[in-house]
Fold Metalloregulator ArsR/SmtB family transcription factor.
Amino acid sequence: MDALAVLAEPTRRRIVDVLRVRECTVSELVGSLGMSQPAVSKHLRVLREAGIVTAQVRAQQRVYRLEPGPFRELDAWLAPYRRMWTHHLAELERHLDRKEDG
């Protein structure tokens, strides 16, 4: 499953934002997001199938955490766009500097 397509869904991005800060159980995510347990579980399943999160069983709970691989792939995909925008912004800065001097 394509990580970009999976993360296009706003609720999944909210879950990822919470997991970026710390590992969480489903009940902690439910509390943080103000959503029902079935809804959070449904989104976690999609994130797990895409390899974006993994779950580790601790006692009676599953603790979810982010996996770096899909984010490295997204970063690699974004790299040419980042370079393009960096170039365009540098050109804009040079243009504005010339207008100030002129």
Remarks:
- The chain is about 70% helix and 15% strand.
- The chain has a mean pLDDT of 93.
- The helical segments are 3-7, 10-21, 26-33, 37-49, 68-101.
